[in-house]
Amino acid sequence: MSDPIEAAIFDTLARADPKGVGGKSVEPAEVAKVLEPEQWRRMLPKVRATALGLMRQGRLTITKKGKPVDPNDFRGVTRLRLPTEAETAAALAARPPVSGDDDD
Question: I need a labelling partner for 70 at 20 to 30 A (CA). Which of 4, 78, 80, 89 fits?
């Protein structure tokens, strides 16, 4: 994991849920404060963008009021947590198919 934002997201989640049982969530602002304690507000859009990318990969779930959000249509106060197996499978199924016909 070479991306410091990605590492901070997963490190913060690991501290929130040390046993790895799942279900514990963190605010994106918590992650931003780990990365930039003094100017965390400037880091917040980058944390949210990275979290969105991780959600699309099936590696993270963004929630609102405890329910997973649609990665293509959400606003407002959100939280981050590790995905369930079903959420990971759904995210992977929603990805566009990779074309294997590159024989040109």
Answer: 4
Give me the CATH topology for the region 4-90: Arc Repressor Mutant, subunit A (1.10.10)
Burial state string for 72-99 with b = 16 or more CB within 10 A and e = fewer than 16: eeeeeebbbbbbeeebbeebeeeeeeee
Q: Give the pLDDT confidence of 43-57 residue by residue, as tens digits.
A: 999 999 999 999 988
The domain ranges of the chain are 4-90
Whole-number Å distance between alpha carbons of 52 and 93:
16
